[in-house]
Write a structure and sequence with these properties.
- The chain has 2 domains: 62 residues, no CATH class; 111 residues.
- By secondary structure, the chain is mostly helical.
- The protein contains 8 helices and no strands.
């Protein structure tokens, strides 16, 4: 209960614009109890209707608040590099028993990456969600090649992949959810 009291106190000190932003833009970053407290606070301040232009203005100001350097690098260098590697480099350099299967797999993965590239470029919500699928599948598949070295080694590589690749990207993209509509 003290937690909610502290939240109420903090919310009561925020300006109207910040409360409106929490309610209409950043709501997915807050617990349901916090959203209810924000609604109560706006009601106390007699703010009932919020102009759509005001919400758009706040959304645009929020866009300017977070750096997107990694997103730009990820989207315009890493993803195209992955497509190039899967279609050109991997079939020419990886010695496997079934090169046709490798090419088809690379083609399917490249098509998925192309969709991801488009979705992130256009800042679409489905692109943001597809990114989670690509991150997880990518780590699973990349660590799979170590399975032949033993199950324990495979899990060590898998855990390292999650800690080094998925977790930092999770934190980064979760903070930028508002960029995607």
């Amino acid at each position: 209960m003290d937690d909610l009291k502290d939240i109420r106190d903090r919310m009561s000190k925020l300006p109207n614009d910040e409360l409106i932003r929490i309610l209409n833009i950043d709501f997915d970053n807050y617990r349901e109890e916090v959203i209810e407290i924000v609604k109560e606070e706006l009601k106390k301040r007699d703010i009932k209707e919020i102009d759509a232009d005001k919400i758009e203005e706040l959304r645009k100001s929020k866009l300017e608040e977070v750096p997107t350097g990694w997103l730009e690098f990820y989207n315009y260098w890493l993803i195209p590099g992955g497509i190039f590697f899967n279609l050109i480099i991997a079939p020419l350099t990886i010695q496997i028993e079934y090169p046709g299967v490798m090419f088809i797999f690379g083609l399917i993965w490249s098509i998925l990456l192309a969709f991801l590239l488009y979705g992130l470029h256009k800042r679409r919500l489905w692109g943001w969600k597809l990114n989670w699928v690509v991150l997880v599948i990518g780590v699973l598949l990349n660590s799979l090649e170590y399975y032949t070295m033993g199950v324990i080694f495979y899990f060590v590589v898998l855990i390292l992949g999650v800690l080094i690749w998925v977790l930092p990207n999770y934190v980064y993209f979760k903070k930028r959810r508002h960029l995607f509509t």
